[in-house]
Amino acid sequence: MSPKRPDVGCYYFPNYHRSEPRNAAVHGEGWCEWELVKAMTPRFPGHRQPKVPVLGYTDEADPAVMAKKIEDASSHGIDYFIFDYYYYDDGPFLENCLNDGFLRSPNVDKLKFCFMWANHDWLDIHPSLRRSRPLLWPGKVTPETFRRLCRRTVDTYFRHPSYYKIDGAPYFSIYHLECLLASFGSVEATAAALREFRDMTKAAGFPDLHLNMVVWGQPVLPGERELADQPKVVRKLGFDSVTSYVWIHHMRLGDRPEFPYRKAMELYLEHWKNMCASYDLPYYPNATVGWDPSPRTILSEKWTPSGYPYTPVLSGNTPEAFEIALREIRDGVARTGVSTFNINCWNEWTEGSMLEPEAEYGYAYLEAVKRVFDRAR
Asked: In this structure, are residues 58 and 356 in contact, taking their beta carbons and an 8 Å threshold?
């Protein structure tokens, strides 16, 4: 008997619509990250830029535009989008893509969706100065803000028939452990807040809440100076699973302009083994399409690797190399028996990691997903 096919999730970064008040306040009316994509030029010899979207510089808050994305994703083996969800002390950010585009699309029933609360500091990096990156909205929020986020998520989104669930439990992921802990001041208070979120979900009629933690870096506990025992902290907080967002979180890329994609894959596969040995929770692996955040750099500044977004880029991330990575992930998922994994990303155009069709390779990355994970095969 062949192993059960895992669910295939794909992160979605929703900053490609022109109706976002926060962006208008900082960058001007109608701005979105397409402006950085369109302005891009090569930053070093052999640099594969600019990237040009096959479907054009579309507005993702348009239901017709999102319907095309849903059709492309669902017909190539993607089961659900994991929306990067932003919610700060003064309310939500970048949700017009979801509310106006995805949820109003005529074929929304073809693709599931869920959230990864992107609770990191939002810095002014569009584009980024080399040394000064002003903080616009802090990832640390008040307990009252978190409670409002949970209430709104349960009442507005968990109840939607397309919300992704694992064994009937809505899936909710959190990106930044250190900001989460800082929001409540201790492991105990954070655990209590997450239990309240779980109880809120059960009270709404769901069997449970599936809490997932994106694990990367090494956090320091509030009031402490030493690094925390991350697996122990994640277990105490009551998470049901752990995962990754992008390969480069787990490796040093060095100081050369480019880092081989194949080498990054090998390092990530080794990291995956270490995570499975360190955590007694299911680990949902990640398949990364690529990495190139140079569109977020100031083009008039000399480019040298000196910290995000002035980092080396992954080279050799062809569709063929990506398909090899997918097959490694598929085989590893079969060995570990987990039910899902994720891909970075549908549309990280300003970080160089996207399944969405681009001029050089067209639909080739999506076709690789279809060959490896299409249910019909």
From this structure: no
Q: In 10 A of CB 86, how many CB atoms?
A: 21
pLDDT tens per residue across span 74-126: 999 999 999 999 999 999 999 999 999 999 999 999 999 999 999 999 999 99
Q: Distance between CA 307 and CA 292 in Å, rounded?
A: 12
Map 124-190 to HEC letters.
CCCCECCCCCCEEECCCCCHHHHHHHHHHHHHHHHCCCCECEECCEEEEEECCHHHHHHHHCCHHHH
242: enclosing H helix or E strand? strand 241-243
pLDDT band, very low/low/confident/very high, at 377 (cuts 50, 70, 90): very low
Segment (H or E) for 66: helix 63-74
- Tell me 5's DSSP state: P
For residue 117, the number of C-alpha atoms closer than 13 Å in the C-beta half-sphere is 25
Q: For residues 130 and 217, give the distance between their C-alpha atoms in angstroms, rounded to a whole number.
A: 22
Task: Characterize the bridge pairing of strands 135-137 and 122-123.
Answer: antiparallel
pLDDT in tens, 317-367: 999 999 999 999 999 999 999 999 999 999 999 999 999 999 999 999 999
Instruction: Quickly count: other Cβ atoms within 10 Å of residue 172's Cβ.
Output: 26
**Beta strand 165-166 pairing with 122-123:** unpaired
Strand 340-344 relative to strand 7-12, pairing: parallel
User: Using alpha carbons only, how large is the chain's radius of gyration in Å?
Assistant: 20
Amino acid (one-letter) located at 250: H
List CB contacts of 84: < 8 A, sequence separation 6 or more: 11, 12, 13, 14, 94, 116, 118, 175
